[in-house]
Amino acid sequence: MIITTCLLLLTGSRQAMAQDVVEADSLPSLTADSISLVVDTTMIHKELVDKWSTWRPDPKRALWLALVIPGGGQIYNRKYWKLPIVYGGFIGCIYAMNWNNTMYKDYSQAYLDLMDNDPGTQSYNQFLHLGTTITPSNENRYKDIFKKRKDKYRRWRDLSFFVMVGVYALSVIDAYVDAELSVFDISDDLSLRVEPTIINNHLSNHPFDASSVGLQCSLNF
Fold first, then answer.
1. What pLDDT was estimated at residue 137?
2. Helix/strand/coil for 200
3. For 142-148, which contacts have Cβ atoms below 8 Å and span 24 or more sequence positions?
4. Which among 185, 187, 188 is positioned nearest to 56, based on CA atoms?
5. Closest CA to 178 of 33, 101, 81
6. Phi/psi zone of residue 213: left (φ > 0), alpha (ψ -120 to 50 degrees), beta?
7. Cα 159 from Cα 174, distance rounded (Å)
8. Is residue 113 within 8 Å of 143, Cβ to Cβ?
9. pLDDT of residue 159
10. Under a CB-based contact definition with an 8 Å cutoff, are residues 114 and 134 in contact?
């Protein structure tokens, strides 16, 4: 019984030692795989950063995207900070156009009601001050007022539309110019050199009379 117990203990100890050896042998491979994964991730990140820093937009593609989708050129050029300006301009113009159009319709209807002399159509009363009424003595003055306001809101409505077209055109131009300037040389190699020179004026055959001394400027950029 004692011998059997000792054999079992020895067998268990050998199995435990063998398992420890296997785990110890597997540790270096796992560590190498982890290091390889970290290196690969670092290289991928570096490649993405390099591509982002060296990426240059195509001006034609930026132009077409800006024409098809308002603000699409700015998104393609990765100038996301310009989007609130572009879309803010569009939203402001749409709001102004809608509000002026509503006021134009209201004043047009009020002017028509004032001109038809029908007591049942008096929508113009909503524009009068409290206690004010239109009488034959002041009717012509109010007709002129309503007509001028109607025409004013119509002009402002049309102007809002043209301003919105202008915002759209500016967004297209900005996308194209921004893409073109992305390849423009903005290095520090900018210098101005001024030096004396001899200028030939071809006024005489004599070398001293045909030449004059001046300054020559050269600009490097």
1. 81
2. strand
3. 142/114, 143/111, 143/114, 143/115, 146/107, 146/110, 146/111, 146/114, 147/111
4. 185
5. 81
6. beta
7. 22
8. no
9. 96
10. yes
Cα gap 75→183, rounded to integer Å: 18
3-state secondary structure 113-138: HHHCCCCCCCHHHHHCCCCCCCCCCC
Burial of 152: CB neighbours in 10 Å, binned 0-12, 13-18, 19+: middle
Rounded to whole angstroms, the Cα distance separating 97 from 153 reads 9
DSSP assigned state of 186: -
Ranges of residues in the chain with a pLDDT under 50 are 1-30
Collapsing DSSP to helix, strand or coil, 194 comes out as: strand
User: What's the CA angle centered on 124, arms 120 and 125, to 5 degrees?
Assistant: 85
Tallying the residues shown for the chain, one arrives at: 221
Rounded to whole angstroms, how far apart are CA atoms 59 and 221? 23
Q: How far is CA 86 from the centre of its chain?
A: 7
pTM of the full structure: 0.59
pLDDT digits (tens, 9 = 90+) for 42-64: 666 555 555 556 678 899 999 99
Confidence at residue 112, expressed as pLDDT on a 0 to 100 scale: 87
